């Protein structure tokens, strides 16, 4: 199987945290030990989410699909281009990216590490295409996985990289 | 060819949403026969002076700016879904601004 370079088996998470800041702290600490981000990353991503939220209402794609969020921050805090999946055991409230006065229950995060926005096919666009083009049943199964290796396998196999 | 019409797209980090909107709008306007350039910025860098160099501002969310922009604001967040029916009204609004600029 061809490895998808947008994912790393070490950088996949399952969290039972109940608020974005706690999730970001858990994930940031691990990403820092993997040298994928620098020590400004946690503050960067946490503040950015509060000022410019990243929740995405997936109902225009399919009504029965749980919502997602795509937290990210400036390239200066990041050492790589990677999607970091975070499955949430219970839905966590995020604000809607395109309508920040609305809150959305979110079940799965595609955290985007991007230190080179000009240099490669748009990661956010690839995430949206994955959601739009995958069967809803497959996405529902993904969003309910609670083992990081299964999440990694499913995403690496099914995420078509441009 | 008509003159280049310049838009700015801005998002929180300046790396993902704004670039997706840049790529999508430039490509669609090329298909429609217009010469459109979009520059991606972080919202915190957007000010009155910067906007004065552009013909329109593609926004992702209704963002509070500390000033009232003199150029047209186009709500472009729907483009992020990559669903043609959702993106079309945004492209139509962009085209309207481009036509007005070209008519000047």
TrEMBL record, chain B:
Pfam families: PTS_IIB (PF02302). It comes from the Bacteria. Residues 8-99 form the Phosphotransferase system EIIB component type 2/3 domain. InterPro entries: PTS_EIIB-like_sf, PTS_EIIB_2/3. The keyword Transferase applies. Keywords: Transferase. GO terms for biological process: phosphoenolpyruvate-dependent sugar phosphotransferase system. SUPFAM superfamilies: PTS system IIB component-like. One of its GO terms (molecular function) is protein-N(PI)-phosphohistidine-sugar phosphotransferase activity. This is PTS Gat IIB. The lineage of its organism: Bacteria, Bacillati, Bacillota, Bacilli, Lactobacillales.
